[in-house]
Amino acid sequence: MAWQTSWMIVPLLIAAFLLLVLGLSMLLLVTRERMTPTIGALLVFCLAGATWAIAEAYQVANTGASKRIWFAIGSGSFVVVVFAWLVFALAASERERWLSLPRIAPVLAGGGVLAGLFFTNPIHGALWESTIVSRAGLFVLDVQFTAIYGGAMLGLLTVTGLGIAVLWVYGTQRDGVSLRAIGWMVAGISFPVGTGLLYHVGLGPGVNLTPIALGGTASTLIYLVFTRELIGRVPLPRSAVLNRMDEGLVVVGADGHVSDLNPAAKSLLDLEETALGRTVTDVIPEWPDGVDDDRTTVDVTVEDGDRRHLRIRVSPLSDSHHSQIGLISDRTEQEALQQRYRAIIEESAEANVLLDENGTIIYASPSVERIFGWTSTEMEGETAFEFVAETDRERIRAEFERVLANPGYEPRLEYRVVDREGHECVFESLVRNLLDHPHVEAIAVTSRDVTERREREQELERMNERLEEFASILSHDLRNPLEVAEIHTTLAQRGDEDALETVQQAHDRIDAMIDDILTYVREDDTVDPDEIAFEPVVQSAWETVHTRGATLSFDMPAETVIEADRRRLQRALENLFRNSIEHGGEAVTVRIGRADAGFFVADDGPGIPPEDRASVFDNGFTTAEEGTGLGLAIVRRTAQAHGWTVTATESESGGARFEFGNVSFPSED
Fold first, then answer.
1. Histidine kinase domain: from which residue to which, for each copy (predicted)?
2. E strand or H helix at 543, and its extent?
3. Which of 22, 154, 400, 423 has a CA 20 to 30 Å removed from the CA of 111?
4. pTM of whole model > 0.85?
């Protein structure tokens, strides 16, 4: 590969060196300050300009085919410079809205595609074709640009002009901004634009000298950014700023001594002028030992008659990692408010829990220990669904997912929770999606134990059901005997002496119905089971009923023990015996014996038709003229209260058989 010399190489390399130095200074600044769009744009501007200058210098010095490659590298770098300028203009004019990722990303992506098209032109030739020719003793590129290149250049000029316009509008519309500084910026970018136009219209030495102009442009921009010339505002006196601050300010030098503090700091910390020059840890014992790049926060309590709670935010100064500045704020009111809220939460009858997006408990209020039995520490870090009863777990998980997907959805859920003792309690929870709340960033769940309330509601529901049944029975079943009594009373008044006997029978029927109705309504679903001898209960029930000539057969061992509520079991047996006698007559035989899972009561009467066996336990169902229709309903309710099953079938002799299942006989276990 042959080389040639030209005077243009030296200024190009000087410009490259200057741009590299400026770029490295930006990198150094980034290590000491946080990255900002302004610094980032200047960094890219300088490095891309240096790359362009080096590529142009190599292109001039080279005489072979690689001139085309270096020309493409320089042209692609030129595209990067233009888009870096646009980002700089947006950042310097404080247009953060346009620097947000959704808006700037498509612009930068377009710039990247265009730069890639320039870099790869030697492969596809879409933008230009070039040949190496000799002019005035130098080998130079004779470049023939295509229409696509013309369109690309028009777009790049538009981007450059847009940056200029943004800065100019900013300078004319914002108070305190120096138009002179804006003018220097516009002039700084206009210079390389002018040299580039001269190159493309064929004026000049035949080499693009724009990278040389970029050295001056970058120097101008950096100077204006990092001096007061950019904002042009008149600095306020120190006393007008620091002395009027509500926050305290403490400056600590590299030697660890207090070098400055404002009146607010003296007042908040109860200090005197003698604090200046002293070691900061002597003045503020809580001052952190070491402060890195990140800010450190410490809380301080000052006792000077009234207790005050202060917060000190300590940061390193930008000019030295060893110097520090501390901003002091009074948090006494906030601390008192937090203590009040903390006491309310701790003493609340409600449990307050915060969950992350996975349902993991990240905070549990102290009240959870009183409600659940688990401490806050034990619950935090666990999955909330594990505390929900298994039968409700999937439903609650589905509701949680719905809250995640729809932040406006705030359901009030009722479900069962397993406490530390393994008992199930009914809880009602209000669930709110506060993931976007800056001070919460979680799913908030406020819960209360409603077990007793739910039990009371269920008891009221049962009572209402019984009252409805009572009203239905009174309005329906008592009407017939009352009508009979009314008719025959009228007949008796007219002299029919036999009618009085019918009235008496109607009254007797009403009396029996009232007894059955009261028994049915008063019986509930609760029992007090105990291990009792079965045969004595059967005998007591049999003796209570007017059995006339009926026969009882107890086909079980006399020592049989059953687990049941004695009073409720005897009343159920009385109703079964009465039912057998009413339908089977005075000579009926009633048998009690063991079944597969319990016991049976059977008779040798006419039995129950198959189509009626499923309905005989309904209240009001009867086939007897004198029946109330409640006897077997009472039997079913007694069985259900014990957790038994009862079915009506046919006995071996064709009579009725009532079979009880799921019955416990401790004597046989």
1. 473-660
2. helix 534-544
3. 22
4. no
